[in-house]
Design a protein that fits this description.
The chain is of the alpha/beta class and 251 residues long. Helix content is 41%, strand content 15%. Helix 1 packs across helix 8. The relative contact order is 0.15.
Length: 251
């Protein structure tokens, strides 16, 4: 097995521009760093100014912005061409369908689906003109295999699957690729906060780990490595793919 300490990260994305949403923490942060390490010039967006300010890299520019707001997105993405777009916004409302308030349902779709829709619409014209582009949508294993008490979340992530496939099919002839990653449970600050709020955090964490045959939770860097591959020329024959990254949880 190759040690992560000795693995040489390739410069597959040199000369390319990338936009990553929800980049202040967790999966988005890891993706922004990985794309920059591979040579891309990255614009990292998030409304979390405190943590976004800690995202230090010579090839990363940060901007405090609500990437779920169409007007804000248009100001950020409406001028410069984007070669790579990674949509990472995700909110996990709790509860069954009967427990889900209508306002929570609407907010889940606003954050988890509408933000992807608006960002993709804004980058597509430039990608079509360049006849090149890679879009990576972060979905969830819950899109393919519903999780208990996650009705709204599962529905929104399933919508991302349909959106991904539609964009891939409609714009393949323009040289644009669109793929989705479906991670299982990833050890992000958000998950850590959820575990800490449970009555028995160690037991809760052990239960979550037990759901993954590989014997651990996912790491943000696992998702980042796959996102970088999907953004790179090495995956140029892949579009419309829905990739499980789940430690065997969906096997």
């Amino acid at each position: 097995m190759i040690s992560m300490n000795t693995y040489s990260i390739p410069a597959r994305l040199a000369g390319r521009t990338a936009v990553v949403t929800a980049a202040a923490r967790g999966i988005g942060r890891a993706i922004a760093l990985r794309l920059a390490d591979e040579g891309a010039s990255v614009l990292a967006l998030d409304r979390d100014q405190e943590h976004l300010a800690k995202l230090a890299h010579s090839r990363i520019a940060t901007r405090t912005a609500d990437a779920a707001d169409p007007a804000t997105l248009e100001k950020v993405l409406g001028t410069d061409r984007t070669d790579i777009l990674v949509n990472c916004i995700g909110w996990v409302p709790q509860g069954t369908l009967l427990q889900c308030l209508p306002e929570d349902w609407r907010m889940a779709f606003h954050l988890n689906v509408d933000s992807f829709f608006h960002a993709i619409r804004l980058v597509l014209p430039g990608m079509r003109e360049a006849r090149s582009g890679a879009i990576v949508n972060i979905a969830s294993l819950a899109a393919l295999r519903a999780a208990p008490n996650r009705a709204a979340y599962s529905a929104t992530k399933a919508a991302i699957i349909g959106l991904t496939r539609s964009v891939a099919l409609d714009y393949a002839e323009d040289g644009i690729r669109c793929n989705a990653i479906c991670p299982a449970m990833v050890d992000t600050p958000s998950l850590q906060d959820r575990i800490a709020a449970m009555p028995d955090p160690p037991a809760a964490r052990a239960l979550f780990v037990s759901r993954h045959p590989i014997g651990r939770l996912g790491r943000p860097e696992d998702v980042a490595a796959l996102a970088a591959y999907l953004a790179s020329p090495e995956s140029e024959f892949m579009t419309g793919a829905i990739l499980q990254l789940d430690g065997g949880a969906g096997a």
